[in-house]
Amino acid sequence: MNRGARLALVSLVAFALVALLGPLLLGFTFDPDQINPSERYAAPGSAHWLGTDALGRDVLIRLLIGARSSLVVAGLASVLATIFGATIGLYAGYRGGLWDRVFLRATDVFRTVPKLPLFILLAAVDLRGLGFPTGPTGATLQLVFVMTLVSWVLIARLTRGAALELRSRTFVEAARSLGLSEGRIVRRHLLPHVARPVAVAGAMLLGDLVLYESVLSYLGLGFQPPTPSLGSLMRNGLAELDRAPLLTVLPGLLTLWCVASVHFLVDARKIARGVGGDPGSG
Amino acid sequence: MPTRGRSGLRRLPIRVLGLVALAAVSSLGLFSLLHALPGDPVSRLMFQEANAVPEEAQRLRRLRGLDQPVLVRYRCWLVGGRERPSDSDPCAAWPTRGVLRGDLGHSRQYKLPVSALLGPRLLTSLSLMIPGLLFGLVAAIVFGLLAAKLGGLSDLALRTVGVLGLATPTHWLGLMLIYVFAIELGWLPSGGRGEGLGGGLWHAFLPVATLALFYFARFSRFVRNAAVEVLDAPFVSVLKTRGVSEGRLWRAHVLPHALLPLVAVVGHALPGLFSGSLIVEKVFSLPGVGVLFFESLGNDDPMVVMAVGMLLVVASFVATSLVELAYFALDPRTRSSISEGRLS
Q1: Interface pTM, i.e. ipTM
Q2: pLDDT classification of A273: cutoffs 50, 70, 90
Q3: How many Å apart are CA A4 and CA B193, to the nearest integer?
Q4: Which residues of A touch B36 (CB under 8 A)?
């Protein structure tokens, strides 16, 4: 791992720590929903480190909780999509045959569907009928569900391609001729070889999903007020862009911190391996 | 997945087949999902009327055709009702001749035929998407080639800008441009459309710049890497030792090799253009198709959602396929250069 990659990794871990531990540490001192009419638009100071918003709520604690909401959604969804997608991709690539071809054609077509309108539609659908709770938990679960549903395909295609290449290699043939079961070959012989590219794709997915959460909540889907997320904070700040620009600037900078760390990490790894970074291939 | 040794045209039938399958699956999916949107429209209406009675809801549901099963209504949307309306016609509440006969239905919100509504909206979106893509692409080519040629600090700068561009939420970028150029500096309008050609261009500046920056970030590194790869290739050294002039080397050898794969990358990025346009339309309050889709979902305007949704899906597929076919025609090798995608 070169210096650039290490730096990016440190930055990403730092973001995760700030997002996950920050609300816990500051939660004793500040209440994210505490409305305070006498302290509207307070400037940053000792009482409120980053000032207050239109309702006198502390900006810092809301930012931290917002970062946590976004990271939890994107993190859960990217992990689920990676596990699910890698499993299907491995088996599709290893087995080949009719179902593999059907899978390939279907995803070929699915790739051309514009993702944001699809996310908008799925995020707007009422999932309470399927037993989803309401409130922030419901929003989190729905976003995770919807994001996993759409993005596992991407990972599956990538894994499938890698598995297809490995299939005819001699060590896999040897394993087959020794009579190992399919499950064992896939898990013990294919998985270790695809783990790295899949992990990189999963990391890229995390970055993309943070961006999608942001835009969905910005549009008023996803997290609803007063629950903060990086997107819904921007939505709140929108009306006060002229008088309190920080309310919009800060959530964007946090998003940028998280996603740019991911991209620099992936990019630095590619440079280290001597592979050109390709914006299309992630 | 590109297939070895097949020409572009041989792939046409499978593309058409794909289009039909896509249209069928996505229209049925979209139609069914529409009825899973929060609170069916009638209960929402009833909620607003304090002294409404359940019988009224029943009547309203019948009037809107909501008492019919989804599949029956889907059939109405596809092929329309009977020639002469009657009480027993399940499609009586859907005054349309059916999509397959070229009738997209009526918008409940705008009191217009959907086809009349779509025209100007589409024009607005295209006038964002096409210049945005072109400017982004041209800038990416120019700066990508420059970085490849100069190397060093300019290379690092391009890489940094590219990564930061990929990581910036597009709506936030738009808001920041509004804040700086419209609110603080007051140079440019923050949204809406201008009067006449000059005003139109004036108002289009920030939205188009947002989209162009988005595409610059996506393409610039690809151009730079492709050019560096070509410059390192043995045939370039051979040409140099044979004394081919710098200008000729770039024009006749480096550019074609470096830019050809870009066609595939652009094709792959086209679906993202619809997403990007939706965001920009929303941020800059422009009445395009993306915003129409988003708002019709909330406005209980199913005919519009269906029409716009299908338009987005079909147009995106056709555009992507056309670029892919062009790529196959341009590059006879057509191996696996078509990149596996990000969520675009």
Answers
A1: 0.85
A2: low
A3: 44
A4: 125-127, 129
Strand partners, B156: none
Q: Predicted confidence band at B324 (pLDDT cuts at 50, 70, 90)? A: confident
* Contact assessment for residue B144 and residue B153, using Cβ atoms and an 8 Å cutoff: no
pLDDT band per the 50, 70, 90 thresholds, residue A206 = very high
B256 upstream amide cis, omega within 30 of 0:
no
Q: Where are the alpha helices (DSSP H) in A1-58?
A: 3-26
Task: Test A114 with B274 for CB contact under 8 angstroms.
Answer: yes
What sign does the dihedral B189-B193-B196-B202 (CA atoms) show?
positive
Domain range list for chain A: 3-29+48-273
B199 at the A interface (CB within 8 A)?
A: no
Residue type at A248 in one-letter notation:
T
pLDDT for A74 = 93
Contact: B33, A121; criterion CB under 8 Å? yes
Residues of A in contact with B1 (CB under 8 A): 104, 108, 161
Q: Inter-chain contact B339–A105, Cβ cutoff 8 Å?
A: no
CATH of domain A3-29+48-273: 1.10.3720.10
pLDDT in tens, A66-78: 899 899 999 999 9
Angstrom CA distances, A257 to A25, A233, A271, stand at: 21, 16, 21
- Block residue for tokens 């993005």: A151
Instruction: Give backbone dihedrals phi and psi of B112, rounded to 5 degrees, phi first.
Output: -140, 155
Q: How far is A139 from chain B (nearest CA, A)?
A: 13
Cis ω before A226 (30° cut-off from 0): yes
* Candidates B163, B270, B343; nearest CB to A264: B163
Note the pLDDT tens digit of each residue in B195-248.
Answer: 666 667 777 788 999 999 989 988 988 888 888 888 888 888 888 888 888 788
For residue A88 the two structure tokens come to 């299907």
**What residues in B contact A255, CB-CB < 8 Å?**
167-169, 172
**Radius of gyration over alpha carbons of chain B, in Å?**
25
Which amino acid does the sequence have at A216? L
Q: Which residue has the higher pLDDT, B41 or A174?
A: A174
- Distance, CA of B215 to CA of B211 (rounded, Å): 6
Nearest-CA distance A180 → chain B (Å): 30
Q: DSSP string spanning A125-154?
A: S--GGGT--SHHHHHHHHHHHHHHHHHHHH
What's this model's pTM, rounded to 2 decimal places? 0.85
Q: Please list, in sequence order, all residues whose beta carbon lies within 8 angstroms of the beta carbon of residue B73, skipping any fewer than 6 positions away.
A: B31, B65, B90, B91, B94
- Measured in angstroms, the CA of B247 and the nearest CA of chain A are apart by 25
**Cβ contacts (< 8 Å) between B342 and chain A: which residues?**
154, 204, 208, 279-280, 282
